[in-house]
Design brief:
The chain is mainly alpha-helical. The protein has a single domain (about 5-190), classed as de novo design (two linked rop proteins). It contains eight helices and no strands. The termini are far apart.
Length: about 190
């Protein structure tokens, strides 16, 4: 074999290894995005399961606030539908409605001292607050992971491999500006 053949084989092997490494990195990024979304999905499901309990407790005390309770229930259903469909943009929009409904529910609950004193209500309030904080953390991690994926897909020469193997950009989970602010549920119930 000639030196030219060894050089050619060496260059070919180096390019193959480089392409294989890039491909594996894209697979890892794609799976990281899926895992990050799955972590959000688990928390959304947990919160989804807690909200009917909260609404039931509130119904016992808030007989004249049916519209508030119905809006929370409808918003819960919208989040569930978007989550089941895997529609990131729809989840963001539905989350906006749900958080607004919960804020209103907690604000209206201020007018019902017996409700605020209910141990189950307090427990659910704390649980939902914890879930909200965890969702915010996971949302940040998801968006960081998506951002890393999207940057990598746009960079040269990675974009060649990404295009060749159809690795695509992933959507960021976005909320309206008022959703960026954390709801201080405890402050809504303090005397």
């Amino acid at each position: 074999m000639s030196i030219a053949t060894f050089v050619f084989l060496g260059i070919f092997a180096a390019l193959f290894l480089y392409a294989a490494t890039m491909f594996n990195n894209f697979v890892r990024l794609k799976n990281n995005v899926a895992q990050a979304w799955s972590n959000i999905d688990v928390l959304l499901k947990q919160r989804h399961d807690e909200l009917p309990k909260l609404v039931e407790i509130c119904k016992q005390y808030m007989q004249y606030e049916r519209d508030v309770l119905e809006k929370v229930t409808q918003a819960r259903a919208a989040v569930h539908s978007a989550r089941e469909a895997g529609d990131i943009a729809a989840v963001g929009a539905a989350e906006t409605g749900l958080r607004a409904g919960l804020s209103r529910l907690f604000a209206v609950a201020e007018n019902y001292p017996e409700l605020r004193a209910n141990e189950n209500f307090q427990h659910l309030q704390d649980r939902i607050s914890q879930l909200e904080a965890q969702i915010a953390d996971r949302r940040e991690f998801y968006n960081d992971t998506v951002n890393a994926n999207n940057i990598r897909i746009e960079q040269f020469p990675d974009n060649v491999i990404a295009t060749l193997f159809r690795f695509g950009e992933k959507p960021l989970l976005r909320f309206k500006e008022e959703e960026i602010k954390d709801v201080n549920v405890k402050a809504l119930f303090s005397n």
